Amino acid sequence: MGKIKEIELSNINEEHLTTVQSVYKVLAFLLDEDANYEALTIEELELIHLATSNIKIRDGVLKYFSDAPLEIRLDIMKSFTIITQVMVDRTDDDELDPEAIGYSTMLLAAFMLCHAGIKQDADEDRDVTTELKMVDKLLEQATELGCQASLLHLLLLTRRHDVPPRIFYDSLAAVSFHLVTDPTGHEDD
């Protein structure tokens, strides 16, 4: 069992606090039972783009996802699948470029790879091989759409070298939410 590190609140600067607030705003939207993901507003599209393209916020969302119970992970993946499909369907809109859809597709693949690495007691019926084929398909689409994120390159390497999904999940589980959202040590891609 890992140790929980106390966070010295006086060390949290304004940028870090803004990042954490953005992560929770994204998650609140993804878990909102009343949200209409099929009719995304420009503000909601901007929120999704922020969650997929800003490395600190994306890492925070992924870390939250990796720590979440099964039901929450499934809700996030379901919401994000609908959002990504809606973005694909709206490619003719001026406010959506293919790269933004690529980033969204990449994050969905990351969610699925992390989920594939978490083996639950009630998972005997799960077909992880099929899940991983879907991850590969999403990564291919993200690449074709022009996504250039470092996370995409990491995910592609992971799949190309057939690294077990558990390793990806364990790497997310090994760091704290505070660390992944801390602005120091990150470079935006």
Provide a brief overview of the structure.
The protein is mostly helical. It has helices spanning 14-30, 42-53, 55-67, 70-89, 98-116, 128-144, 150-160, 165-173, 177-181.
Architecture blueprint of SSEs:
Elements: H1 14-30, H2 42-53, H3 55-67, H4 70-89, H5 98-116, H6 128-144, H7 150-160, H8 165-173, H9 177-181
Q: Sheet with the most strands?
A: none
Q: Please estimate the helix content.
A: 55-70%
- Residue share in β-strands: under 5%
Q: What is the overall pLDDT average? A: 85
Explain how this protein is built.
It is globular, with a radius of gyration of 16 Å. 65% of the residues lie in helices and 0% in strands. The chain has helices at 14-30, 42-53, 55-67, 70-89, 98-116, 128-144, 150-160, 165-173, 177-181. It contains 9 helices and no strands. By secondary structure, the chain is mainly α. Helix 1 (14-30) crosses helix 3, helix 2 crosses helix 3 and helix 6 (128-144) crosses helix 7.
